[in-house]
Specification:
By secondary structure, the protein is of the alpha+beta class. The chain is built from five helices and six strands; from the N terminus they run αααβαββββαβ. The mean pLDDT is 88.
Length: 178
């Protein structure tokens, strides 16, 4: 489902930066020379590891990147400001699915934080849809894994951890008055 090769996060705490680099590759396959490198996985890992300290400046490494740092970095990747939207309860999952599927259908990737019922633990990048399903790059496996509205509504997306916590979503542009 993804036009890119299987690229895995280089260590257990770099899922956020791996999603950011993957998003950059979706925008520009020549990004960082990853795909032209003799070993694309090694080139990908080098860029991810270089980015990692910049998306967790005041955050301990073992906790990975914060949603706010990922939102700032997504602006650099896409040119569009991003914000963090927390997913709370069934109603939140329903509106999150609508936002997620519409954003991806419009050609914009969206970062999703998933975790245990106690805290967010993992980051995936939703980037492809066929209307009924959304495919997300899951950096632990390097594969695109699909989910349906039912997965998200039940609080069980198949993206490494079962509970959706937050979306890093493009901010709507403000309209100017004429």
């Amino acid at each position: 489902m993804s036009p890119l090769p299987r690229l895995r996060q280089p260590d257990p705490t770099t899922c956020g930066p791996a999603c950011l680099v993957f998003a950059a590759l979706l925008r520009d396959p020549a990004h960082g020379g990853v795909l032209a490198a003799p070993d694309p996985q090694r080139a990908f890992a080098a860029i991810v590891l270089d980015l990692h300290p910049r998306v967790r400046r005041v955050w301990p490494q073992r906790y990975g990147a914060t949603p706010w740092a990922v939102a700032r970095a997504m602006r650099e990747v896409t040119g569009t400001p991003h914000s963090v939207r927390w997913v709370r309860g069934r109603r939140g999952r329903r509106t999150s699915w609508a936002s997620l599927s519409a954003t991806v259908a419009a050609g914009e990737p969206m970062v999703v934080f998933v975790g245990s019922r106690f805290l967010p633990r993992h980051v995936v990048l939703a980037h492809v849809t066929d209307g009924a399903r959304v495919g997300a790059y899951e950096p632990g496996s390097g594969r695109t894994v699909t989910a349906t509205a039912e997965h998200l509504l039940a609080g069980r997306p198949p993206w490494g951890f079962p509970v959706p916590w937050a979306l890093v979503t493009p901010r709507p542009t403000r309209r100017t008055r004429a």
